[in-house]
Write the structure tokens for this entry.
Amino acid sequence: MIELSGVSKEYARAGVPTQALGPVDLSVRSQQFVSIVGPSGCGKSTLLRCVAGLMSPTEGMITIDARPVLGVPDRTIYVFQEYSRSLFPWLRLVGNVEFPLLGTMPRQAARMKALRYISLVGLGGFETHYPWELSGGMQQRAAIARALVKEPDFLLMDEPFGSVDAQTRTQLEDLLLELWSARPRTVLFVTHDIEEAIYLSDRVLIMSGRPGRFVDDVTIDLQRPRRHIDTKEDPRFAEYRRHLFSLILDTPGTRTDARC
Amino acid sequence: MRAVNRRSGVVFLCALLAVWEFAARLALVSPQALPAPSTIGSKVFHEILAGNFNEPALTTLRQFGVGYAIAIGAGIPLGFALGRWAGLHAALEPLIEFLRPMPVAGVLPIVLFFLGYRDATAYAVIGLGAGWIVLLHAMDGVRSVDPVLIETGRVFRVTAVRMFCRIVLPAATPQIFTGLRVALGISLTLAVVVEMIAGFGGLGTYMNIAQGAAQAVDAYAGLVMIGLLGYLLIRLFQAVEHWLMRWHVGFTRQ
């Protein structure tokens, strides 16, 4: 369970404090897949980085399973939007994926586990490739394998599919859902893409423009497992989309074409 | 494409030597200042065969080697420390930025005050001059590691030691190697300069004596030897670098 109460973040910009986020309250149940959608610069990435312990909120309290987030929390992995910069270019794929395990288990066991996760994300055969020898979509698969290999209970993803082509994106979305249903865990997923949010989530939160606040909280009642063609043809999918789009368009200062 | 480039390079070099040969033969330039390349070449050849270069070349190589080793041994740890601890860097930043553009050969007279005309002077001058370059590159390398890589380490909750050894260090190696490569050239230059000025053996002193005796051919022969030495050292360096930095070659080409 992830809980935020009264969380806000203020940046000093050229000496002038700017309210970037909140205050927001949020409570995410265990094993729930929750997306946060909002316009560019609304603070949704800031929120995620606060939950990940990479930055601390100016005010408010974040707890994960009732333990306050002070540093980077245990059993929580954050997946970077900049996946190509997040992979270690001096390590081969297998070296990257086993990296989080080294020091926590014997080397041989770490290697075996890394290899299993590599094949799980469909990168079998590329173990000895360097990250920069892989395509963008494959790099993101590698980043996902490296995140999941530690078997986190909480997965925080910041626009993970923001910079891959549309087709790769649908594949990655399905991969993520597949891995999630095989081993459900709490996912907090930030995106600027409304359809992606609906397709993936149990629940979609809409954020207003800066300073970001939640303007709506929509439960997505679509059957799982989801399929790109069937799910998106479901009349309820269209309804959710219409509702969320009109909400985004009506909220002042919101635009969804640019990324956070 | 590469083969063509290499061939055009060789052609240009031959043309240059031919023009030089002509200019020297026709005495367009005083032979006291510019002997013919064929004369220099045969001089180098005979001096090497006669073993006359052994002693000066080994002396220069020794001074270079010891000085370069000091430069690496001191420059890298100090650069790491300055790159790693922001407080230390902040305290020393004004001094560092003041010294950064200073020509490294400038330390020679100062070192002579302390150490006098001894081998230790050469070691100290090279160590200081080249070590400074190594230090700056190591420091800048550590400081300019992509923050996403650091945050990735934080996400995986790595220890401070692992963060430094497994993330910061490899990420900084390309820049560290740049520093080592520049420092190699500077070390050799300083070795020769110290030999010329302080005059205790080596190829620099060899050239100085030749110049004093108005033996232009000998002076040029010494210069060619220094060039050969530098070329061999840099090739050796590149081989080591290429072996250690295989990932970086492909990474920067992507």
